[in-house]
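Worked Example 4.2. Consider the chain below.
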Amino acid sequence: MGTTVIVLGEKKLKAKFRRAVLIAPMEFQRTCMGAGRIVQTKARRNLRASGTVDRSTLVHSISVRPIQHGLNIGAEIGTNAPHAKPFEGPERSVWSRPPPAKAVLPWFTRHGLPEGAFYGWIKKKMPYLIEPRPYLKPAAIESVPEINRLFSAAVRRILTR
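Applying the procedure from the previous section yields the following structure tokens:
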């Protein structure tokens, strides 16, 4: 004679875990896109407040797209605007330094302008060059508490279904 132990609800528990494993990727992808939209909104707000040149093009170019590499699921927030990198850069952008004289002086001499005109042109252009005004990284840092809440809620939804 043997003893048989029956755990009530074992099949239900296994089924629930199987379901959680199936719905988790979809739920996390949705949550990643939601987190990306939060960062996108704050980055756009940061750009509007910064008073940058041509910010409407840059504001509208910030996008969120889903990414998946194997089991890694996420969202990518970025921009395709060519002038975005100098704004986000950690230091003064390339635009804040004058071009090398050997690259520009031939153009000035070819057009009959004296060498001194080049240096005058650089001094005139310097005030209009762009200083870095980060918008994406501060938005991501500012969004961390909201993103944590989003993922906590996603885990709760997965486990309670």
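The CA atoms of residues 10 and 16 lie 10 Å apart. The beta strands are 62-69, 72-79. Compare this with Example 4.1 before moving on.
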